[in-house]
Design a protein that fits this description.
The chain is an alpha/beta fold. The protein is built from 3 helices and 7 strands; from the N terminus they run H-E-H-E-H-E-E-E-E-E.
Length: about 220
């Protein structure tokens, strides 16, 4: 007699053999991994929406602190803007194309930057750059960061640069008696930040941001 019970030897389909991912899938995965890696590095837009000075006024007498400068991409944007400006507009009376300025100069960064980041930005901007200091940069020409506006993959930075002219003493001694504003548009994010275009504008001593020496910088990190 035949039984209605299921046959214990019934055939079970074998699992389909696994296939290696196609070259296209591997490239797509590599792209995602690369993008995620860049998001943790200095060149990427991490929290990249910053305006300094802030658009709304702060309390009377309270300095507007730019703490975001300690994070990417802000410190990378500021570094590249300073590097480009110092090379394109060195503090000499008559800069010559292809002749690099080889004398020390100071940079003035906003309040909120840590001492460690202050020194790092100066070091990366130029081997001749020095953090503004009460002790070590007296008499040096100063580049001032006056505005930073980061919006995703673009950034606008304004720098007030020193302009040296020949003193009227007939000895050809350089004097710093003029200032000029440099407005820069930078592009970057998943690629290193670079200056896309720039313009200049008149500046006066009243245009300068407050001096912020490294001795007054926030303790790190």
């Amino acid at each position: 007699m035949l039984s209605g019970a299921p046959d214990s030897q019934a055939h079970t389909p074998a699992p389909a053999p696994s296939r290696a991912p196609s070259p296209g899938a591997r490239r797509a995965a590599a792209t995602v991994v690369t993008a995620l890696a860049l998001m943790t590095m200095g060149g990427c837009v991490v929290g990249g929406y910053t305006t300094w000075p802030p658009p709304t006024p702060v309390a009377a007498g309270a300095p507007a602190e730019f703490t975001a400068i300690n994070l990417p991409p802000q410190h990378n944007v500021v570094t590249e803007a300073l590097r480009w400006t110092a090379r394109r507009y060195p503090p000499v009376p008559a800069p010559q194309a292809g002749v690099e300025y080889d004398q020390p100069f100071a940079i003035n960064l906003p309040r909120g930057v840590t001492e460690e980041m202050y020194r790092l930005i100066a070091m990366r901007a130029s081997e001749h750059a020095r953090p503004l200091s009460n002790q070590f940069t007296h008499g040096l020409p100063i580049y001032h960061i006056s505005r930073v506006d980061v919006r995703g993959s673009t950034a606008d930075v304004e720098i007030i640069r020193p302009v040296l002219t020949i003193a009227p003493d007939g000895m050809g001694t350089p004097e710093q008696n003029l200032w000029q504003g440099v407005r820069l548009r930078l592009e970057g994010g998943f690629t290193p930040w670079r200056v896309a275009w720039h313009s200049t504008f008149p500046a006066t001593p009243e245009s300068l941001p407050p001096l912020h020496p490294v001795e007054d910088a926030r303790p790190g990190p």
